[in-house]
Amino acid sequence: MDSFLPYLTGDSSVGLFSDQYDDVYHSAYGALTEAYEKFVNPIDLKNNVKSNINVLDICYGLGYNTKSLLNYIINNNLFADKLTDSKKINNINIDCIDINSQLIKLSPFIKTNQNLPDKIIAKFFPKCAFNNLSKIDYKKIEKFIQETSTQNPEYKINDLVNEVIILNLFRKYDNDLNSISKYLSYKKLNRFLAPQMINFVKFYQNCRLKHTQSSLKGPNLHNIYYLYLSNRYKYDYLSLLDSMISINFHDIDARVSLSQINDTYDYIFLDAFTTDKCPSLWSLEFIQLIYERMNDEGVLLTYTTSALVRNTMVSVGFSVGKILDSNNKPIGTICSKNSSKIQYKLNDFESGLLNTKAGIPYRDFSLNSSDSAIIKKRLSDVDDSDLILSSHYVKQFKGVKNEI
């Protein structure tokens, strides 16, 4: 856990800095805000409801994208009250990929909704200064979190979402989930943990232990809640959610996971580190794998507006567009096999940028090359290319660069 440093993002949700990648997992202006505005809101699920939904969350991390999606569905009452309601969601299957199992196990225990003291600290003090970080650690994070506040809406996550994730974690890791206790006692994380989720796990584990040698063999969640939970409504609703939501965790290289998965998806979230930090998950060959796993009406969303990434997506056959914020500023990229799914097309300037050296894709022919080898290959491709430099293209372009 020493390779991760926690801090508060601009909307007072928790972010992590990775020593390995020398980068932050979440945007400075807000981890929750980014999840909603770049991944969840653009798919407009209220107007695209269907009975069964398949989702792929690549680079799950602390799970903000998956949590925000489930929270959006709950808040908008999109789950069916009974399994015969074809106008609402009866089942949602989410495949979550992250090579770091520590983060997967930690995800439901990180505070999602900050209390007032946390918000005050986030607003009036440096975001990580209160965390007793060394000056070296602080400097590592500081360059990524210069913004001190955000004007974006406040987003929250229902505790039920984290409880559902915990139940699915037990199904994946079972007793190995007990190992999470050493991360939950990690002193730099104390302020960032949600005590109610820790208590939920203790409750569940104690009930399992209590019934190990009783007549109630291997009790499931429903048995335990029926016997021990005083809030019957919460039991009923959590039971209903648990029956409708299936979350599968894959803690191996995403290239391997995607090669092994046979499902196709309605929504794919691609939230890898930036292209220069993690080129293996932006290569033409990896995006081709994603294309093959996409339903004909499906949508791929990512935070990047990189010409390299957009040209790679065009090259494998996607129609590509942009995600806009409330000020009509591009904040991400959306792709689909069906061009009608793209609300905001790339303008002439953005499309032309793809045909410069900036748009030359990464190549990973074997789908197991090292990041350094992938970067080296692209540098060679750029040197050998006759395409115009992006800087020259920008200077020569005569049209409106920021046209919607």
Summarize this structure as a short list of keywords or feature phrases.
404 residues; alpha/beta; 7-stranded mixed sheet; 3-stranded antiparallel sheet; 10 strands
Overview of the structural elements:
With 404 residues, the protein is of the alpha/beta class. Among the domains are: 1-31 and 114-155, no CATH class; 272-396, no CATH class. Helix content is 38%, strand content 15%. It has 16 helices and 10 strands. The chain has helices at residues 31-40, 64-75, 101-106, 116-124, 135-142, 159-173, 181-184, 195-210, 221-228, 232-244, 254-260, 284-292, 307-316, 348-353, 371-384, 390-396, and strands at 4-8, 14-18, 23-24, 52-58, 91-97, 245-250, 265-270, 294-302, 319-324, 330-336. The strands form 2 sheets. Strands 6-5-4-7-8-10-9 form a 7-stranded mixed sheet. A 3-stranded antiparallel sheet has the order 1-2-3, with helices on one face. A hairpin with a 5-residue loop joins strand 1 and strand 2. The radius of gyration is 22 Å and the shape is globular. The chain starts with a strand and ends in an 8-residue tail after the last helix. Residues 215-219 and 226-230 have low confidence and may be disordered.
Taken in chain order, the helices and strands follow as EEEHEHEHHHHHHHHEHEHEHEEHHH
Number of helices: 16
Q: Which class do the helix and strand fractions yield?
A: alpha/beta
Quote the distance from N terminus to C terminus: 43 Å
Q: Numbering strands along the chain, what is their spatial order in the largest sheet?
A: 6-5-4-7-8-10-9
On the 0 to 100 scale, the average pLDDT is 85
Approximate shape: globular
How big a fraction of the residues is strand? 5-15%
Count of DSSP strands: 10
Classify the helix fraction into a percent range. 25-40%
What does the main sheet amount to? 7 strands, mixed
User: Runs with pLDDT <50, length 5+?
Assistant: 215-219, 226-230
Radius of gyration from the CA trace? 22 Å
